[in-house]
Amino acid sequence: MKWIPALAVGLLCSGTEAVWAMTDTATTPLNLTASVYGYLALLIFTLSYVFVVLEERLALRKSKPVIVAAGLIWVVVALAYQQHGDQHTAGIALRHYILDYAELFLFLLAAMTFVNMMEERRVFAALRTWLVSRDYSLRTIYWVTGGLTFIISPIADNLSTALLMGAVVLAVGEHNYRFISVGCINVVVAANAGGAFSPFGDITTLMVWQQGLVEFVDFFRLLLPSLINWLVPALLMSLTVEHCRPGSGQRHQRMKTGGVTVILMFLATIAFSVLVHSLLHLPPVLGMMTGLGALKIYGYYLSLHDPIFREHGHITHHHAENTARHNIMHGDHTGVVRRFDIFKVVERESWDTLMFFYGVVLCVGGLATLGYLANLSTLLYGNLGPDLANALIGMLSALVDNIPIMFAVLAMDPGMDLDQWLLATLAVGTGGSLLSIGSAAGVALMGQAQGTYTFISHLKWSWAILLGYIAGLICHLWLSGT
């Protein structure tokens, strides 16, 4: 996996010069939706997404089919344009989408490394221990986990926050399956709602921010609508939660040395990225990668001071297996010992998600180059109007992953104003809560609470979540005066 970041950077460097050199000579994209090439590309994308939907049943990672589909679609695009005597537009368009992906890839790589670093320093484990050890009732735990999820997800992303709070719900609920089911639904809705008003809360909001369509501070205009989106179903579901106290006996875990420092470094990196983007008009990825470099330097400090654990020849430290070379160089062949190594943290990134994102960006970009998104934009935003179109697109994200939905909207570029882009961000970010399979948080918690939090148990409360979804959209429209 170590070659993946290098490949992304290589593509970024090789593509930039060509894009700037050839953009002026590019022809207008053709409308090939009614051609054999258009139908073939659409069929390839549909088949790949069938495999994505069946990921759990087939045990096939979702990134694999979409990466293959991306390559095939762009071959079809190139053949279609060459048949019309255009040998350049397909290559120019492909480099453009690769550049978009490369910037987001590096941003996500840095953000996910910070989150994984906090996990390795047991920041989340310590928080979970503190919550479980409090003498709270189940209903109080229900509100505390939901509230903390809503607060943390804008910073630590909705997926990581949902997994953390889902672990708390499972630890507290033990054999109380009704509480676990409702508690997990509450966490999923809160995670998606909290991630909708911050560029760091979800990939879709990050995409909108990276495109410069919404400034960082403008996202906070979605705070109240997002809060309503969570509170409406949370209040309705809380009526089924008992006031009894949970059992105890959970193992206490403390934060490792440096945990607080990593948290502060992450917050400083976020602030630096925002300032770089707003004041200097540079891509925010520059700030994130600079912060990642500082984190690596701090990781070097930890590697010199982090304790080593050896027990009867077996290493118990998390990063212990990588010091064999050091010991061999010093003539020590008795065991393998290593202190902290930040590159081990980087290796724990969710590469499947990052590669899935690559496939989605290129698949949707290929369909856009064939003219599909221009037609879809006319159908939705031209005929239905932006308000209804954004609301329907948000509901569609419950069935189809919100990443391709948002990228499709960005590729359409329907000419919306700030309030409408905020509405689209809110709708796509929270619409996935309608079904358990509609968001990464829901899918992850179904695996974490297998057999207790299920598709059916979530579906029973979809009506309440839909009420919150509609209330949140209406609140935003009211605040924006439309």
Q: How is this structure best described in words?
A:
GO terms for molecular function: antiporter activity. Residues 1-21 form the signal peptide. The chain is globular. The protein has helices at 3-22, 36-53, 55-58, 63-83, 89-120, 123-133, 138-156, 158-173, 177-195, 203-210, 223-238, 259-279, 285-305, 324-329, 342-347, 351-369, 372-382, 386-396, 402-412, 418-431, 440-448, 455-459, 462-480, and strands at 310-311, 314-315. It has a two-stranded antiparallel sheet with strand order 1-2. Helix content is 70%, strand content 1%. By secondary structure, it is mainly α. The longest helix is centred in the first third of the chain and has 32 residues, at 89-120. Strand 1 (310-311) and strand 2 (314-315) form a beta hairpin.
User: The biggest beta sheet, please?
Assistant: 2 strands, antiparallel
Please work out how many helical segments DSSP would assign.
23
Number of separate domains:
1
Shape label: globular
- With strands numbered from the N-terminus, the spatial order across the biggest sheet is 1-2
**Structural class of the helices, strands and pairings?**
mainly alpha
Rg to the nearest angstrom? 24 Å
H/E order of the elements? HHHHHHHHHHHHHEEHHHHHHHHHH
Provide the β-strand percentage band. Answer: under 5%
* Percentage of residues assigned to helices: 55-70%
Could you give the distance between the termini? 48 Å
Q: Segments where pLDDT lies below 50 for 5+ residues?
A: 1-26, 309-338
How many runs of DSSP E, i.e. beta strands? 2
Q: What average pLDDT do the residues reach? A: 78
Transmembrane segments: 34-54, 66-84, 96-115, 136-156, 260-280, 355-376, 388-409, 421-447, 459-479
Organism: Marinobacterium halophilum
Protein name: Sodium/proton antiporter (NhaD family)
GO molecular function: antiporter activity
